Structures
1.
Amino acid sequence: MKEYVDIIVPRGGKGLIERVSAESRIPVLKHLDGVCHVYIDRLADLDKAIRIADNAKTQRLATCNTMETLLVHSDIAARVLPALCRIYLDKGVELRGDPHARAIVPEMREASEEDWYTEYLAPILAVRLVDDLDQAIDHIRVYGSQHTDAIVTEDYSAARRFLREVDSSSVMVNASTRLADGYEYGLGAEIGISTDKLHARGPVGLEGLTSQKYIVLGDGHIRE
């Protein structure tokens, strides 16, 4: 029915969206996964980092903008992970970490390669330590879904580089990934979130779905 329908915005599980995307002859506005990251940088304000990372995971578990992987700079991991992970554990969040993270918080289970790709939509969080901003950006590039990723830092240069190099539809500095929402962005009612690059990207409101029609009124005008 492409003569009647301009675009499809599938809302539902990954299986539904994958099938519509594969089979539809009509353009689809979609995101398949919300593998969102928060990276706590070496120069992060730790109180701010704990508040943001807690909110990004536990404010609501089963949403596409919920953090699924926490990345922490190895220089400050011992100072921030114990307190933050205690909050997670008290709230019933299962932690799955790499060997370096598990050395600091032994209650973590061992993370598998699959964990870095997984959108849990559940009280489960993957945790990885990184040596620098390069490793954090590389991890997001490999495992992320181009939905929403955030950095917590007081380093202006690191923040600017993160914004520039992380190719996601929403990229944040010192803010929870849970803010990636059409209503929160002032777009009115959210129609959907797109991780595509055409034609709308990120949270989409009515304006994002509006196309242009050019009207030209002439009086004998011609092109020379």
Note: The longest helix spans residues 77-90.
2.
Amino acid sequence: MSEEEDDRGSDTVFVDLRPQRRKLKKSRLVVIDGPDRGRELSIDRKRVTIGRSLICDLVLRDGHVSGTHCELESAERGVLLRDLGSRNGTYLDEVRVKEAWLEEGSVIRVGQSIVGFETQFGHVDIELSKNESFHGLVGHSVRMREIFAVLEKIAPTDLTVLIRGETGTGKELVARAIHKASKRSKEPLVVQDCSAIPSNLIEDTLFGHEKGAFTGATDRYKGSFEQANGGTIFLDEIGELDLTLQPKLLRVLETREIKRVGGTSTVPVDVRVVAATNRDLRQMVNAGTFREDLYYRLSVVQVELPPLRERGDDIPLIVRGILDDFAKRRYPDEDKRFTVHKEAMARLVAYPWPGNVRELKNTVERAGSLSNSLELTVRDLTPTLQKTPPEPLPGGTAEQFVDQGVEFKEAKQRVIDAFEAAYLKSLLDKFGGNISRSAQAAGLTRYHLRALAKRYGIHGDPET
């Protein structure tokens, strides 16, 4: 058993070279000044929010603070402060930032409140699933196994779930997996894309109508909620739901009753609600385009899917699953399997995949259709992938590290050091060595930037 440690962020605990759990270093927030002076919040989960809204973890009564003002995300290298489109901005050590890494003793200003960040002794354990799949989802990365651990716990319950993630990350697959693993699995799963329905039809689509409710309503129609009775309704792209309909959806979530268009009585519905969005609903709450109380009801449990570019280790496993399914469809009566040449796989792993898993699936199935053999090569890939060789890692290639017998931890540190040095040099060159302007552009404090520059022997203007 071993631990891979980071002084500021988290440890990953391995048993027989397999990650078993993540250990976040404990930290806390203390309100130093403002209406809530003395209030504290222990950071015991990956993400916490600060704001005036009751949906936040640290609620401030400061009228100059936005509803959901900013968030802190615990990552491998430390705790990242991120502004959430606040009205008055988020300041770290008196520098306005969009994103910045926190240090021990960092001071955050939101509105007229001052919040201090303190590290504490000890860790918070984050459980990882022992499995590399969950009802059709696959992944052996720490991020995905952390998600599987959550899904294994919440799927058997009736808790409402909000799935967040970029387009193509597999939000509908997660919803289907939750339904399959639930006690409602033998009942219907109804998928409703809120962005695909005209605003004048969405109430009718969701809640149905009575006969004669409007011209052309010749029969009673059961909407999506009634169709899903006893099972699960998946509301995809919930951020696109018209503001005028949001109170009606909120009422359904609270009462578990719907009223058909043109109806006078309510109809009970027994459904589990899973919603998904590629938008930041917290920023929409700030902008007044999404109801705060509806967000609160939908986000009882939140699952955030990482983009594919952040889980490259999972790509070979995903490709294997895609090709196995494709082979069964293409050769239904034969036991054939596709393989991928080493160079082709390297291209697939190195590509950033802006369309995420959906784009990867289309690319791999296209290659399988065009290939003249069961081994996919670079020539079978799209022209973009053929022209883009895998970028070498700063500090050396992965193959060089392995061939030279460099241990994983050291290889990883070389990559990080090389990137940080190159980034800082380019940053300071761009701003003529001006520390203040460089720090603001990078979302760092002046102190942090000076310390990093000193570490790598990069000189900026000490007076700026």
Note: The longest strand covers residues 18-33.
3.
Amino acid sequence: MTAAFERQDDAQDTSSDLAVMLTGGGARAAYQVGLLKGIARYFPHLRFEIIVGVSAGAINAAYLAAYRGTLAEKAAHLADMWCELNCDSIYQFDWKVLLPFRTALASISPKKLRLAQSQPHGMVDTTPLRDLLSRVLHVAPDREIPGIAENIASGDLSALALMTLDYSTGQTVRWVQGRVYDTYEGPNRRVAPTRFTVNHLLASAALPFVFPAVRLDGEWHGDGGIRLAAPLSPAVHLGARRILAMSTGYQRTPAEASTPVVSGYPPAAQILGQLVNAVFLDVIDEDVARMERMNDLLNKMAPHERDGLKPIDLLVLRPSVDLGKLAGEYERYLPRKLKLLVRALGAKETESPDFVSLLMFEPAYTKRIIEIGEADVEARLPELQAFLAGEPRLVAATG
């Protein structure tokens, strides 16, 4: 290893304008842990003073914000947690929630009515995940997560922001705990100061129809990625001048994008996968493109002509491997009931079962994508070093 790649123990521990944005992707969020481990190997004391998370990325974001320690310690603890997970420790699957005539059956007898009312409001019951997060974060689900306020008070953290969708209004809600934040709002979004609880994490990660919605402040909330048109915006409004975005979406080459992954009529698994990518993964690419155009425009203008706007330095890290396609190799590890379901949806008929990857909370898969994350950091280390050193650079949208 050359001198340029030597460990930098004291690098960037006072960067108040540096933000990390952690996107969604269900079990794919383990990839972000690999990125964090890889970065921590070279920058063990790096501090992200602004942390933004959505969907499954909200869990990693909250852990980073709450843990009292170095980035290396946080990444190691996160990796231990993810590598010990399995589907049973995240959710419980019950065939009864899929019965298409459950309501009709329930009307036959009071007993069946009580059974229907007792069922979770999603395909799975996330009680195991709630219990896991409570245990890991040492707090009851509805109590303030310890550590976040302490990190804010010490100056190690400026703000944590997590997104949910308020199903009652259709608004994206940016929940913020921090010292300073911009309260910019619009018709489809609002800002809500809060003290984060486990319930906020569960709500942000509540994949529609699969994970049940969670009640926050009297209303039901779900996955924050559903209507989040500009995932980089929260970090900008919290004062970030540099954003390290960790995406779980693989960026296909033109040749890959033009190659069919299914023959004949598309199975349900293929259609669900396209919906998942459109709602939760593709949006980051669109926002990166917008920021790139804005940066290019601002860089061509004199400072006094920018009306207070400043370019945002952005680096996007994304998988070098298609994590959806990779999930197909680990489908055999799924619990029997879930395996039967995804096969019934046609997961075996497509080469890239993206929907399956969201639910693949199995150690064989999560360990593998953590390793991929670490390797991707190694491959892009010169870019990371320049970015974290604050050197001027162009927006990088590809990985």
Note: The CA atoms of residues 1 and 7 lie 10 Å apart.
